[in-house]
Specification:
The complex is a heterodimer. Chain A is α+β, with helices and mostly antiparallel strands. Chain A has 9 helices and 13 strands.
């Protein structure tokens, strides 16, 4: 943590402590998201802060009795520093995104955001996370999570040819960049799985309670490379650079003409082949040969329908 | 022993807050006892660095002339610019904001929240089902935040989809995130039109070039439509689809024509198709979809498929 981070925290710690005489080190650490050691160090510094120049009389008075803190003679900083535009915008964005997701459960959040906007002079509608439609399954999925009931999910997996039905013990819903994910235990696979709700074809909440409960720690959905993955290299033109956003890319080599060479690992080469088709000629798989062959075969098969044109 | 930097910065802030008239560098030295190195140049440099650090934190250090002849600059912090006004959040609102910050795990918002609630009573902890988590990842917005909030015109080097980079001059109206990408929406001075810019294509510094409050954003700004691209020229297309994938077209409001094609594939009519943008969506289905009409789209899909096939032919060693 840099000295300026420390100063930013201390300028807020002063009014926070003035408002809460006798607050404990633990409470302060919790409020600022740091350890009690950091708060102790801040207090050591604050003991030497105050109106400078005129000797000891005008310095802050920090009393630490046991783990309780009393700060006095610090009225020069009795109010916190304004939020920077970055801080204000981030807070509003965060609160907006949560209100979008859980607004009905948290009516106070919207009014809080309005007050924060007003106080900080952040214009309305200056930032937005545009959520994709998820065919209305979100509400049902959330209900199933809350009530601990199984769902029957009709789902188009990346590696599947068509949608399949599966019984899932739903654990949590995540919104990442406007896309909804359901995490849970897939009974057929016998393992935890992450489902994108925009690939769900149907979702039915069942009466049966979930069989496998959510683990204590559930990391958010992320692609984790597995042992059966293949490493794929794709050359993209500038027009097909969006491919990089759809994949978890390991390396990007920029080209002079605005294109790039992308390298990544995948467990679903067929899905990658379909992405390459979507690029409409702006992307070319250069390795491995069997993935390039999959693209060629799909394109050849598809082009066959138009042979007589 | 030299004073720790954090104490120096806090005390410099207090000194500048507590003065009613601008303090010259000499006065600041006298009042604080800092910057007293024998080398005047390095003392001055240290002060300049401290001043910049405070400004980065958001401490509004103002520079004023101290006499009518503009001979020497003085410095002060106006308490009204420094202090956060009371936001008067109710305990429920404080609890809701705290929960929002916790759900997203955005560490960058934690101190902001603590600032806001430093003078408010601590609310009861809000218990909400932890079955929903939200990810915001707002880092890319930081460089544009100042200009957005203050309504100031900016310029930045921007890489177009075609791969060339050019300087753009924009009145920033809003930022929006869609499918993982952040966009800046604003008035493009060069093209005199509303445009959406991807923040990850800004290739360099965002520079403020005008005064704050230089413009108002339009009342009827439709953020979702702007980042989704122009709505014009939507057409209805006719496709034959594999029964397995029919659901994907039903989701886009397709209707059944009652006719079939090839191996009993249903022929569907899909409204609101953007012939350029949705061409890629249709191509992604590969051999599971055949575009029947309009003829221009059918030709475009056929040519793209042939080009993809040819580009993926095995390289013949020569």
């Amino acid at each position: 943590m840099s000295a300026t981070d420390d100063v930013a925290r201390m300028l807020t710690l002063v009014p926070w402590l003035l408002e809460r005489p006798g607050a404990s080190l633990d409470e302060a650490a919790e409020a600022f998201g740091v350890t009690t050691q950091v708060i102790r160090r801040d207090l050591d510094h604050l003991d030497f802060c105050g109106l400078p120049g005129l000797g000891g009389g005008d310095l802050f008075e920090v009393n630490l009795v046991g783990d309780r803190v009393v700060l006095r003679m610090a009225d020069e900083l009795k109010r916190p520093l304004r939020l920077t535009p970055q801080e204000g915008l981030r807070l509003v964005l965060t609160a907006d995104a949560v209100a979008e997701v859980a607004g009905d459960d948290l009516p106070a959040l919207r009014s809080a955001v309005d007050k924060v906007r007003d106080a900080l002079g952040i214009p309305e509608r200056v930032a937005d996370v545009v959520a994709e439609e998820a065919a209305g399954y979100v509400a049902d999925a959330r209900r199933a999570c809350a009530e601990g009931r199984q769902v029957l999910l009709r789902y188009q997996g990346r590696a599947d040819e068509g949608p399949r039905d599966r019984i899932v013990d739903p654990w949590t819903l995540h919104v990442v960049d406007g896309t909804w994910y359901l995490q849970g235990h897939d009974q057929d696979a016998g393992d935890r799985r992450t489902f994108r709700l925009d690939r769900a074809v149907g979702l039915e909440v069942l009466d049966t309670p979930i069989g496998v409960p959510a683990p204590e720690q559930l990391p958010p959905p992320r692609y984790e490379p597995g042992p059966d993955d293949v490493e794929v290299t794709v050359e993209v033109e500038a027009s097909a650079r969006w491919l990089a956003d759809a994949l978890t890319i390991e390396t990007v080599e920029e080209r002079e003409d605005g294109g790039a060479r992308l390298t990544f690992r995948t467990d679903a080469p067929r899905w990658v082949a379909r992405l390459v088709l979507m690029a409409g000629g702006g992307a070319r798989v250069t390795g491995p040969p069997h993935v390039a062959a999959t693209v060629r075969d799909l394109a050849d098969q598809a082009a066959g329908a138009y042979r007589d044109d | 022993m030299s004073t720790p930097k954090v104490e120096r910065l806090v005390n410099l802030t207090i000194a500048l807050l507590e003065t009613r008239r601008p303090l010259t560098f000499a006065e600041i030295r006298r009042k604080t006892g800092y910057y007293d190195q024998s080398d005047a140049e390095s003392a001055r440099r240290m002060f300049e660095r401290d001043k910049d650090d405070l400004r980065r934190l958001g401490v509004p250090v103002r520079t004023r002339s101290t006499d009518a002849f503009d001979v020497e600059q003085g410095y002060l912090v106006d308490r009204r610019d420094y202090e956060l006004p009371d936001v008067n959040l109710s305990p429920d609102e404080v609890a809701a904001l705290a929960l929002a910050v916790r759900l997203t795990g955005e560490e960058g918002t934690r101190l902001a929240l603590t600032k806001l609630v430093a003078r408010a009573p601590d609310p009861a902890e809000l218990q909400v089902a932890a079955t929903t988590r939200v990810e915001v990842a707002a880092d890319p917005v930081d460089p544009i935040a100042d200009a957005l909030v203050s309504r100031a015109t900016v310029t930045f080097p921007y890489r177009t989809a075609a791969g060339t980079t050019a300087q753009r001059r924009v009145d920033p109206y809003a930022v929006a995130k869609r499918r993982g990408a952040w966009y800046l929406l604003g008035h493009d001075h060069d093209r005199d039109d509303l445009r959406a810019f991807r923040l990850d294509r800004i290739r360099g510094d965002v520079e403020v070039v005008g005064e704050p409050g230089a413009f108002e954003s339009p009342e009827d700004l439709n953020i979702a439509a702007l980042v989704a691209g122009p709505e014009n020229d939507r057409v209805e297309v006719e496709v034959a689809v594999s029964p397995e994938l029919r659901w994907a077209f039903d989701a886009r409001g397709a209707t059944d024509t009652g006719r079939t094609h090839r191996d009993h594939w249903p022929v569907l009519r899909v409204p609101g198709i953007d012939p350029w943008r949705d061409r890629s969506w249709l191509l992604g289905f590969g051999p599971d979809v055949e575009v029947l009409a309009p003829a221009e789209l059918r030709d475009a899909v056929r040519d793209a498929l042939a080009a993809i096939r040819d580009a993926h032919r095995p390289q013949v060693a020569t």
